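From the methods appendix. Each design record in this collection lists the tokenized structure first, followed by the designed amino acid sequence. Records were kept in a plain field format so they could be parsed without special tools. The example shown here is representative of the layout used throughout.

RECORD:
FOLD TOKENS (467 positions):
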């Protein structure tokens, strides 16, 4: 079964498997002990730390190992905020950060801190000119590349704007694939993203950065991460990181070409599709596209039945009904979203087969909606009529993408310059209807209380037909 979800977790690299098996025999003892097996485990741990530090461009004593990338982000943010609490309690981060950043920011705010969120453009790239620190800013956070759409962020530029304020860079999606960006003060990563074993995260803290752990004191991992370290898993993580970095230039070029094929062919093969994310400044292995009038989870189920493992929207939120905060911040469709992220070694034939089956699957998902049939006169109109020349479409009680589908089906019933109003009570409509207008070059006029159109709930989303 073709696995196209490396952004969630990459398959275990063969080098990691070999190193893990060897380290289970040689590195099982407590590395803090002085007897022979303990010293052996310590040597393996130190060598792994040196390897990771070299890849990150850090000193070995700046690198600590955590139990996950999420834990690395949380400990890094909270430790830096606590270490600089005399400076202030202001936190700055972009609107498209991983949920681990957002949840930590919520905790910081609930504890009395202040948080500013920097917006992004339609490609998902942070508006670096808005990345402005204040005299009381304790920490800024910016990912190296986005986990949902692959856009590479201007980390070095943001770091320059931060000045003396430390910048934490969440590099989970790029470490092992791309060079580590300049300018970071704290950096986090996750081994299972590059083909290492799960359960190993990396937290690097530059010398000179004020850092105070929020957890009780512990002598391990420079006092930043308490608890017993998993030496075999760390050894395997370091070995696989060295291996993927050695192959990165050649493999990146190959995967980049396969992703470019998807980016180019999908809009040609499937009508009403938007490829999202920066087309140039992006990760080599990841592409995301949104299909109008399609429920992303339904499409993923059909792709799974066809033998393809892909994801929809954020891996952190796809199991909920909450629209992706990344896609919402970009102003693109939050429904019908498919993320394809190719692991190392993906054959070109698998990509070709994906492109071959996708059009029919999308068409099958859309078929019951009757998109190719003319809409019956008067169907779906609130109170059965238009108000003062405005066509009112009742989509109350319908989950997105159905409100957008109703809008698309009824657009032709008004002349250019005419207005349509969609009544909807699904929160996603607030994001998807403006995004649809941008894609279809129609004018979004804003929202109004639905009560003004005779409804007892929801909102009225106003659209002017331009063409």
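DESIGN:
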């Amino acid at each position: 079964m073709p696995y196209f979800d490396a952004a969630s977790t990459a398959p275990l690299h063969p080098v990691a498997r070999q190193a893990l098996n060897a380290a289970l025999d040689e590195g099982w003892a407590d590395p803090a002990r002085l007897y022979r097996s303990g010293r052996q485990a310590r040597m393996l741990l130190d060598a792994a730390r040196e390897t990771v530090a070299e890849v990150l461009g850090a000193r070995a004593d700046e690198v600590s190992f955590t139990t996950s990338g999420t834990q690395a982000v949380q400990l890094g943010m909270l430790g830096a905020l606590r270490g600089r609490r005399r400076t202030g309690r202001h936190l700055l981060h972009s609107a498209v950060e991983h949920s681990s950043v957002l949840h930590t920011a919520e905790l910081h705010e609930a504890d009395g801190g202040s948080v500013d969120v920097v917006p992004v453009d339609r490609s998902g790239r942070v508006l670096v000119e808005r990345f402005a620190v204040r005299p009381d800013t304790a920490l800024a956070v910016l990912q190296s590349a986005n986990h949902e759409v692959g856009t590479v962020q201007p980390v070095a530029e943001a770091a320059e704007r931060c000045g003396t304020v430390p910048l934490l860079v969440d590099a989970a999606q790029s470490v092992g694939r791309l060079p580590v960006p300049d300018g970071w003060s704290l950096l986090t990563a996750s081994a299972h993203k590059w083909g290492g074993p799960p359960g190993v995260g990396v937290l690097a803290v530059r010398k000179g950065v004020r850092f105070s752990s929020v957890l009780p004191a512990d002598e391990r991992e420079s006092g930043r991460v308490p608890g017993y370290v998993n030496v075999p898993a760390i050894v395997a993580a370091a070995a696989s990181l060295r291996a993927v970095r050695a192959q990165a230039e050649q493999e990146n070029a190959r995967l980049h070409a396969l992703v470019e094929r998807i980016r180019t062919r999908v809009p040609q093969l499937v009508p009403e599709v938007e490829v999202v994310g920066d087309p140039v400044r992006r990760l080599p292995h990841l592409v995301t596209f949104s299909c109008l009038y399609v429920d992303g989870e339904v499409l993923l189920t059909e792709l799974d039945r066809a033998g393809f493992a892909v994801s929809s929207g954020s891996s952190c939120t796809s199991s909920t009904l909450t629209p992706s905060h990344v896609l919402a911040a970009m102003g693109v469709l939050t429904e019908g979203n498919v993320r394809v992220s190719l692991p190392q070694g993906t054959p070109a034939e698998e990509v070709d087969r994906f492109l071959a089956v996708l059009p029919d699957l999308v068409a099958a998902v859309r078929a019951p909606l009757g998109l190719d049939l003319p809409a019956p006169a008067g169907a779906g109109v609130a109170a059965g009529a238009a108000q003062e020349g405005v066509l009112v479409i009742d989509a109350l009680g319908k989950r997105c993408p159905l409100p957008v589908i109703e809008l698309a089906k009824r657009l032709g019933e008004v002349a250019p310059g005419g207005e349509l109003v969609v009544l909807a009570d699904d929160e996603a409509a607030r994001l998807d209807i403006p995004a649809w207008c941008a894609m279809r070059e129609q004018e979004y006029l804003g929202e109004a209380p639905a009560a003004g159109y005779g409804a007892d709930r929801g909102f009225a989303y106003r659209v002017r037909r331009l063409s």
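APPENDIX NOTE: DSSP finds eleven helices and 14 strands in the chain.
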